[in-house]
Amino acid sequence: MQSFRYYLMTEEYAASIAGWTYEESYSFYNMDDSEETISELMNGEYYYVLNSDNELFGFICIGESARVSGGYEIGIYNDDKCLDLGLGLAPSHTGMGNGANFLDASIKFIIEEYQTSNIQLVVAAFNERAIKVYERVGFVKSQCFKSRLGEEKIDFVLMKLKANNEVPGIHKRV
User: Fold this and answer.
1) 3-state SS track over 116-151
2) Nearest-angstrom CA–CA distance, 57 and 47
3) Average of per-residue pLDDT across 39-45
4) What does the pLDDT look like over 101-142, one tens digit per residue?
5) What is the pTM of this model?
6) Exposure of 120 by Cβ count < 10 A (0-12 exposed, 13-18 middle, 19+ buried)?
7) What CATH number is associated with residue 49?
8) Domain that holds residue 150
């Protein structure tokens, strides 16, 4: 099993992540490598994640950076005790069974760093691969909603981490 280390985002890693491109059905997650995107990744809410081989494996973001605009309209961000999580794997590590280990490690990092296990995330409804990983690690589907992305309205699913003692793989809860 891989181990991971979490670091506040640097400009070097932000530039690398901003240039990632995913296969067509997941190209929705592509960023552009503009200065604006790199600046967003440097806002203090993003962490780059290295694996045990010291390779860039993914990133996580917390707080407002993890939020989808349509969620504000339906009030899913009104609970200030709930931490919002966003994450992404490097394209070379997707679809290979790495997601659950990465997410489990990310939850443990958040619990230690932010002293909370009240975590939620939002995922595009079409991303069944990610939804299965989230459910396997202990998230449950909550609300469905639409959010505008460019000219389109996309379906999203809010998922919340189960109560403390129900989460597989998570041993310490605060």
Assistant:
1) CCCEEEEEECCCHHHHHHHHHHCEEEEEEEEEEECC
2) 11
3) 94
4) 999 999 999 999 999 999 999 999 999 999 999 999 999 999
5) 0.89
6) buried
7) 3.40.630.30
8) 4-165
